[in-house]
Design goal:
The chain is α/β, with parallel strands linked by helices and 491 residues long. The protein has an eleven-stranded mixed β-sheet with strand order 1-5-2-6-8-7-14-15-11-9-10, sandwiched between helices. Strands 3-4 form a two-stranded antiparallel sheet. A two-stranded antiparallel sheet has the order 12-13. Helix 5 packs parallel to helix 6 and helix 10 crosses helix 12.
C-alpha cells in the first residue's frame, strides 16, 4: 500500500473509508502487520484481538454498503486500556495484576463513543497496577517505552495507549486520568491528550456512585490531532442523571468550537506553580511554546501562584486521596475471603501497599485535613482564573525516565538536586484532578536527546472549548509531525 496510513489522523482515515477509497478490513490488516512488527520494542499492548477486529471490520463493510457512511472514525483502529472494564466479553487486569484478571462486565464510555463513531478495537494496552503512578510498568507485563527512545518510559498510567498512538500502531487510544494519566503519557510520547471538565463525560459508578471523585477520575482519549480529540469528546460527552457530577448541556459541537480565534484571550504561564522544581531544558522548551500564542493575538504573561504547601506534600496528598477507593475495594474483597496483600503481595509494588495502609490507618480528622488542602488548591487556582482565561505549564518537570527491570519503574527521586516524590510528584497535572478543570497536553518540542516534552493547557471549569481552541491554534502555529525511527534498538 502506497499510503502510509499511520501518518493519517483518525478523521482523515475515516473520510477515506466512508468514501470507499479503502475498506475497513484492509485498514485492520495494515495495522495488524504494523503492530506485529513494532510492538515488541515498546510493549504497548497487553493483548490483541485481530480475529475479532476483522469480523467487526467485515460487519462495518456490510453497513457501509447499505448506508453509505458509518461515522467520522469509520474503520479506524483503536485500543482500550487494560485497567478497568472497557468492552464486554474482553478481560482487564487492573493494570497488570495477575490475580485480578477478570472478564469485562461493561463497556467504557470511550468504547461506546468510539464504536458509535465507527471505530474498530484491536486490543488492550498496558498500564501500571491500579493506575497508581505517572509511569507505565507492572509485574505482569513489564514497562512500556516511548517510541522516541525504546528503553525510556512512555509515562502513565495510560502509557500503552499513548505509545501505540505515537508509533502509529493505532490512531486513537483509550485513556483514564486520575492524576494526569492521559496528559503525562501524551507528553512523553508526543501525542495530544485531553481531560474534560468534571461532569462533561458521564461516569456511572456502582455500587458507589460517588467513587472516582477524590480526586476526580476521567475517561478520555489520546490522539494524534486536536480534531480527533474534539470529535471523541462530542461522542463521549452528555448528561446522565445517574452520574451525580454530570452537568446538563455538556454536549457541544467541539470540532467547530475549537476553531474560534484566540485574539484578546488572556493566558497566564507558569513554570512551576510556585512549588515544583523543573528541569531547565523542559522549562526552556515549554516557555518558548507558550510564547507562540502571541502570534494568535493572545496576551501571554507570567503568573504567580501562592500555594501554602510543598511539592512533595501535594504529591503525598494525591497518593493518599487516590487510595481511598482502592483501599475500600481491597477491604471489601477481604470480606469475601480474597486478601490481595496477604496472598498476592508479590504482584504489587510496595509503594501501592504502603499508601493503601496509610489510608486504612487514617482518621476522620485526616480526611478533613485532606479536604482542606484540596480546597486550598481550588481557591488558589480560582484566584488566578479571575485574571486569566487559560493557564499554561509544563506537563512534567522532567523528560522521560529510563525503564527499570523489576516491574517498578517510577519517576525521578531528585530533580535539580531537590527531592521529588517519585510516583506523581514529577507531574504538574494532578491539581486539575482535585479541582475538575479541563486540561490538555500538547507536544511542545523535543530535548537535545530527542525525547518529547509536553505543554499543559488548563481552562476554566466547563470551558472545554477554550482549551480545545488554544490547542487547535497552537497546532496550526507549531504543527507536530515527528518522525519515529523506522528501525530502533532498546536502550
Amino acid at each position: 500500500m502506497s499510503i502510509r496510513l499511520e501518518r493519517l489522523s483518525a478523521a482523515e482515515l475515516g473520510r477515506m473509508v466512508n468514501k470507499g477509497e479503502i475498506s475497513p478490513t484492509e485498514v485492520i490488516r495494515y495495522f495488524q502487520k504494523r503492530i506485529e512488527e513494532r510492538n515488541p520494542s515498546i510493549n504497548a499492548f497487553t493483548y490483541t484481538k485481530f480475529e475479532e477486529a476483522l469480523k467487526d471490520a467485515q460487519t462495518l463493510e456490510t453497513y457501509l454498503a447499505e448506508h453509505g457512511s458509518a461515522g467520522p472514525f469509520a474503520g479506524v483502529p483503536v485500543a482500550l486500556k487494560d485497567f478497568l472494564p472497557s468492552r464486554k466479553g474482553w478481560t482487564n487486569s487492573h493494570g497488570g495484576v495477575r490475580s485480578l484478571i477478570r472478564e469485562d462486565t461493561e463497556d467504557s464510555m470511550f468504547w461506546k463513543a468510539a464504536r458509535s463513531a465507527g471505530a474498530v478495537a484491536v486490543g488492550k494496552t498496558n498500564a501500571p497496577a491500579f493506575a497508581f503512578r505517572g509511569t507505565t510498568d507492572n509485574k505482569l507485563y513489564g514497562p512500556t517505552s516511548t517510541p522516541f527512545r525504546p528503553g525510556y518510559n512512555s509515562g502513565g498510567s495510560s502509557g500503552g495507549s499513548a505509545a501505540a498512538v505515537a508509533d502509529g500502531l493505532i490512531l486513537i487510544g483509550e485513556g483514564s486520568d486520575g492524576g494526569g494519566s492521559i496528559r503525562i503519557p501524551a507528553s512523553w510520547c508526543g501525542c495530544y491528550g485531553y481531560k474534560a471538565s468534571v461532569g462533561t463525560i458521564p461516569a456511572v459508578n456502582r455500587p458507589d456512585g460517588w467513587s472516582a471523585s477524590h480526586p476526580y477520575c476521567f475517561n478520555g482519549a489520546i490522539t494524534k490531532t486536536v480534531e480527533d480529540s474534539a470529535i471523541m469528546l462530542e461522542y463521549m460527552s452528555g448528561y446522565d442523571p445517574r452520574d451525580p457530577h454530570s452537568v446538563p448541556h455538556a454536549k457541544k459541537n467541539f470540532s467547530e468550537l475549537m476553531k474560534k480565534p484566540l485574539k484578546g484571550m488572556r493566558i497566564g504561564y507558569t513554570d512551576d506553580f510556585g512549588v515544583f522544581t523543573v528541569d531547565e531544558e523542559v522549562k526552556r522548551i515549554v516557555r518558548k511554546a507558550a510564547m507562540s500564542f502571541k502570534e494568535a493575538g493572545a496576551d501571554v504573561e507570567p503568573v504567580d501562584f501562592h500555594f501554602r504547601y510543598t511539592q512533595n506534600e501535594y504529591a503525598q496528598l494525591w497518593c493518599r486521596s487516590i487510595c481511598f477507593d482502592t483501599a475500600t475495594d481491597m477491604e471489601l474483597w477481604k470480606k469475601d475471603g480474597f486478601d490481595l496483600v496477604r496472598d498476592h503481595r508479590d504482584e504489587f509494588p510496595e509503594e501501592y501497599i504502603y499508601w493503601n495502609e496509610q489510608v486504612l490507618n487514617s482518621s476522620i480528622l485526616d480526611l478533613r485535613a485532606m479536604n482542606e488542602m484540596r480546597t486550598e488548591i481550588l481557591d488558589t487556582q480560582e484566584d488566578v482564573f479571575e485574571a486569566f482565561d487559560l493557564i499554561l505549564s509544563p506537563v512534567t518537570i522532567c523528560p522521560p525516565v529510563k525503564n527499570r527491570t523489576d516491574g517498578n519503574t517510577k519517576g525521578p527521586d531528585t530533580v535539580n538536586g531537590k527531592q521529588v516524590e517519585p510516583l506523581i510528584g514529577f507531574c504538574e497535572t494532578f491539581f486539575e484532578n482535585f479541582t475538575g478543570n479541563p486540561a490538555a497536553s500538547i507536544p511542545a518540542g523535543l530535548t537535545q536527546e530527542g525525547l518529547p516534552v509536553g505543554m499543559q493547557i488548563i481552562g476554566r471549569k466547563f470551558r472545554d472549548e477554550d482549551v480545545l481552541a488554544a490547542s487547535y491554534t497552537y497546532e496550526q502555529i507549531s504543527p507536530w509531525s515527528y518522525d519515529i525511527p523506522l528501525s530502533r534498538t532498546i536502550d
